Amino acid sequence: MGSMICNKIGLAGEFRVMSELLLRGHNPAKSYLEEGADIVLENGKRVEVKSGHKCHSSHRATDRGKGYRERGIYSFTLKGGGRRQQQNLVHCDFIILWCIDDDCFFILPMATVNVGAISIANTSGDNKWMAYKNRWDLLKRAEERR
C-alpha cells in the first residue's frame, strides 16, 4: 500500500511541475519510461522530479499526522531507495524538488547536487538550498543557451 501511495505522489509531482513549466512558457514532455529523467524540455534538457510531504524522522510514513508535518522536514532520496534501487541521475540536467505542504519548488542544477539525499527543514528560512527556491529562471536561462 505504501508503495502505491508513493507512486501516486511521484506522478502528481511530475504533473504539478509540468503545469508550472507550461505556465512559464516551456513545452515539457513527460517520459513514461522507468529509466532516465521524468520530463524533457524542448531544448533537450532533462529534469528529474522529486515530491514529498513534511515528515518527522522518528515516525513511519503511515504515522505522519498534521502535527508532525507542521514541524517536520522534507527528505528527498536522490540515489537508491524506493522502487528504483539504483536510480541513475547522471543524464539529468536538473532536479526539481516539490515541497508539497508548502507548495514550493527547489530547482537544482545537477552540478550543485553531489549528495544521495536532501533534507529541507525550513522552506522559508535558512538552509543551504534556499538560493534555488522557486528559481524557474535557471531553466529559462538553460533554454536561452541552446
Task: Note down, in words, how this protein is organized.
The protein is of the alpha+beta class and 146 residues long. The chain has a single domain (2-144), classed as Trna Endonuclease, Chain: A, domain 1 (3-Layer(aba) Sandwich), CATH 3.40.1350. The protein is 25% helix and 21% strand. The chain has 3 helices and 7 strands. The strands form 2 sheets. A 5-stranded mixed beta sheet has the order 1-2-3-5-6. Strands 4-7 form a two-stranded antiparallel sheet. The protein is globular, with a radius of gyration of 15 Å. The N and C termini lie far apart (43 Å). Residues 59-69 have low confidence and may be disordered.
Summary tags:
single chain; alpha+beta; 3 helices; Trna Endonuclease, Chain: A, domain 1; globular; 7 strands; five-stranded mixed β-sheet; two-stranded antiparallel ribbon; 146 residues
Layout of helices and strands, plus pairs?
Blueprint: H1 2-23, E1 29-30, E2 39-40, E3 46-52, H2 66-71, E4 74-77, E5 94-99, E6 104-109, E7 117-120, H3 137-144
Parallel strand pairs: 3-5
Antiparallel strand pairs: 1-2, 2-3, 4-7, 5-6
Q: Give the beta-strand count.
A: 7
Which parts are unreliable, with pLDDT below 50 for 5 consecutive residues or more?
Answer: 59-69
Q: What is the CATH topology classification name?
A: Trna Endonuclease, Chain: A, domain 1
Rg computed from alpha carbons, rounded to a whole number of angstroms: 15 Å
Structural class: alpha+beta
Helix and strand string, N-terminal first? HEEEHEEEEH
Strand order of the largest sheet: 1-2-3-5-6
CATH class equals Alpha Beta
Q: Please give the count of helices.
A: 3
Largest beta-sheet characterization: 5 strands, mixed
Mean pLDDT: 82
Write down the overall geometry: globular
Number of domains: 1
| First-last Cα distance | 43 Å
What CATH architecture label applies? 3-Layer(aba) Sandwich
Strand content: 15-25%
- Proportion of helical residues: 10-25%
